[in-house]
Amino acid sequence: NAGVTQTPKFRILKIGQSMTLQCTQDMNHNYMYWYRQDPGMGLKLIYYSVGAGITDKGEVPNGYNVSRSTTEDFPLRLELAAPSQTSVYFCASSNMASRSEQFFGPGTRLTVL
Amino acid sequence: AQTVTQSQPEMSVQEAETVTLSCTYDTSESNYYLFWYKQPPSRQMILVIRQEAYKQQNATENRFSVNFQKAAKSFSLKISDSQLGDTAMYFCAPQGAQKLVFGQGTRLTINP
Questions:
Q1: Most exposed of A28, A64, B77, B112 (fewest Cβ within 10 Å)?
Q2: What are the tens digits of pLDDT across the range B56-101?
Q3: Strand order of the sheet with strand A64-66?
Q4: What is the mean predicted confidence (pLDDT) over B8-31?
Q5: Closest-CA distance of chain B to residue A59, Å
Q6: Is residue B84 classed as helix, strand or coil in its secondary structure?
C-alpha cells in the first residue's frame, strides 16, 4: 500500500494564479482531511470529508475549495493565490473519525510570490 | 471549540535521558481521544501514542508513555531512554467527533 500520496511536492505560484493539490489514499478510508502548517506552527484544518460527496469547512477554509467525488481522492483547489497561502499542505485520512489514527501524506510546500 | 497549549517551545536533552513534554487542552466534548504526533526533519507526521479519554490507565508504547489527568485536562508525554532518532517536533492533538486540533508543538533535540 502506498498510503496517502500528494502531488506535487513543491510548487511556486504567482499571486492570482490557481492550482489544485492532489491527494489520494489507497486504504479505503472514509475520512479525509486537508491541513496547512505555517512555519513554526502546528497544523490547522482547512477542510475535511466524511465520505464521497460530503465535505465541510475546518478552521481556515477561506481561499480554498474541495470536492470528494470518490473515496480515494480529495483534491484541494486554491483560487487566486495570495502570499498568505504560502505554507506546507498536508492531506490525511482515517478509518473512523474520533478514535483512529490519521495517516498523513508527505506534504506539499507551496510558495506564493 | 477545542484549544491546545504546549508551553515548551523547545527542549534539549542528552541521549539516554528521560524527557517530559507538557500539554494542556480544553474541550467541551465528553468523548474524545488524545494523540501525540511527531514530525522529524523529514516533515512526515508520525503517530507516537494514543489515549482514550474514558480510560483511566495511561497509555504506553515502548519508551513512550503519557500522564493523562482528565480533570486537569493535562496530557504529557514522557520519553524514556531518549535516542537521537527522537529529535523532532512533537504535537499534542485532542480529537473530538471528527477533527484533530493541534498544539503549536515542542521542538525536541536529543544531543549525543
A1: B112
A2: 899 999 999 999 999 999 999 999 999 999 999 999 999 876 678 8
A3: A4-7, A19-25, A76-78, A64-66
A4: 93
A5: 9
A6: helix
